[in-house]
Amino acid sequence: MTVTRDIMRETTRGFSKYYNPELHGELRLDTNTNVLGSNPAAERYLAEGKWDLNGYPNTYSDGLRGALAELYGLEADNIIAGNGSDEMLDVTFKTFTNWGDNCAVPVPSYSLYDYFVKCNGGRAIEVDLTEDFQLDVDAMVRQDAKVAIMPSPNNPTGNSFRTSDIEEILSRFDGVVVVDEAYGEYADDSMVRRIDEFDNLVVLRTFSKAYAMAALRVGYAVANRNLADMMMSVKIPYSLNMVSEGAAIAAVSDQDFIRRSVEMVREQRPVLDAGLRRLGFETFPSDSNFILARSPIDHAELVAGLKERGVLIRDFGSKRRTENCVRTTVGTQEHNAFLLECIADIVEG
Ligand SMILES: Cc1ncc(COP(=O)(O)O)c(C=O)c1O
Question: Helices (H), strands (E): how many in the chain?
């Protein structure tokens, strides 16, 4: 038997593998993790930990769901926890879409939305953001779609969407609206505490960014009890391992670290932005811990030059709407100074 890619599910045949750079100890400003380093409370938990590895973790991560419910003033039954917010995306599409259903996905936004929609047999309908990277509300609701998804703040553009636009989509869209707040800790507005105002709202959050625990893969969804119950019945039982769950509970109890992390980004973001502009970049307004910028020289040349000098940033330059753009995480003062020095060397040299 000759096996070709035709053996794959129709909607996944065109897939290639995800971003997986070869690493040689570079400064990583390409994944928007917390540049202050590992979450200290989670590290302490891991250092002290003793686990019964023979036992299963709690089926639905009730301990973490309880801690998050307390943090937000919600009920544990409003929360679904799992293996990164990527698992929560998967659970969302698994729960709410049938084979062939349309899902409205803004462009540009998180590249894995298209992947998760197609993994679950759906069709990702691209809906362009407006010129200033805001939601085109009419275009989002006009799609004959079952799910509409939007990251706010948006990745890779960095800006938050207007709350009034999200509210309008929630009221006009005849399906489930997913607001992905992976970078929500950095923004002023959030939909997390508003789940009971809407029948159709799912909010996603992660421990991978401000919480500085990407390695442990923890994410969660927040929704009214009706939707949360549906999603919980679809989610893979035990998908969040007990070590990660315990570390996440410890991390929730240290909100001071989150505040410090957010403050640092708010201080450093304008400094980095100004430095990039001085070097000839067009920068876009950001409410998150990264900046999208249009390069004054060829994007691939810039990214390769930085890699040679020991810094990784992310290249979006070949994609529609982000032509010749790169995305960099906002670093500490030292990181940003080094990044700007390397860029000056490439651009001016
Ligand atoms: C907008 C957005 N959503 C979801 C994720 C996935 O995060 P996690 O590490 O929780 O799977 C990312 C990661 O970069 C992201 O940028």
Answer: 11, 13
Assess whether the C-beta atom of 214 lies below 6 angstroms from ligand 1.
yes
Give tens-digit pLDDT for 281-301: 999 999 999 999 999 999 999
Atom 12, ligand 1: residue with shortest CA distance: 182
**Confidence at 11, pLDDT banded by 50, 70, 90:** very high
**Dihedral of alpha carbons 140, 81, 84, 334, sign:** positive
**pLDDT number for residue 50:** 83
**Residue 49 clears pLDDT 90, i.e. is over it:** no
Interior angle at CA 110, CA 108 and CA 111, nearest 5: 90
Name the residue ranges covered by the structural domains of the chain: 5-37+256-348, 41-254
Distance from residue 179's CA to the centre of ligand 1 (Å): 12
> Scanning the structure block, which residue is given the tokens 């998967």?
90
Ligand 1 atom, smallest distance to 86 CA: 11
Nearest in space to 240 (alpha carbons), one of 63, 73, 78, 104: 63
CATH 3.90.1150.10 fits 5-37+256-348, yes or no: yes
Q: Which CATH architecture has domain 41-254?
A: 3-Layer(aba) Sandwich (3.40)
